[in-house]
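User: Structure please.
Assistant: Input sequence and predicted structure:
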Amino acid sequence: MTQNTMTTDEDTTTANIWRQVAGNISTPEDVLRAFATDADATVRQAVAGNRSAPPGLLRVLATDASSDVRQCVAYNPTTPEDTIHALAEDADLWVRRAVAHSSAAPLDVLCELASDTDHRVRWTVAGRPVTPVNVLRVLAHDAEVSVRQYVADNPTTPEDALRQLAADASSDVRWSVACNPGTPIDVLRVLACDVRVRWAAAGNPRTPVGVLRQLAMNTSSDVRQGATRNPLAPA
């Protein structure tokens, strides 16, 4: 083994140890502050994701040059609300998406991100169960299929929006409606006749027994299997 290889291995080992210490909730505050200025961005990430990191330190790391560090701050459930608001306007879409995922994000931030220019941020908001229903209704009309699909998947999406999405031009969206446990029974009856999504309807626990009997005799083995495996399937 060469000297250079030994040095590299030692450096890697040291960095791994520092990351573990930086991410440990029992690490003293003064040590976290020291690690927050480390040249290695992965060490700063560990501090940024540490639930014991003081609010002031998280505010500083929210302005870090590394977007990966800022993402970790956004995901941290103890990040102050004012910092979450600032990160919701970050130039990096992955940071904004991390905010949309974060349990620390207040509802007004989710409402703001629901109109983000990037559909990947909007679909993240669309999939959050805590997203206000009025926002889900708006996202149900989104131009991007993926956003509408996330709304259709969301267990808290209101029935009127699910009814609308059940008639969506995209079979992927209709499939998600057919899978949603909140979908009205009359809508499931209709979707059970939809060639592209009846397999999904066959597995929905709200699908009526009579419909399951019909699907259990379908020419498609996948549909028959879905119907017979449904917890409501007749013996």
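Residues 184-235 form one domain.
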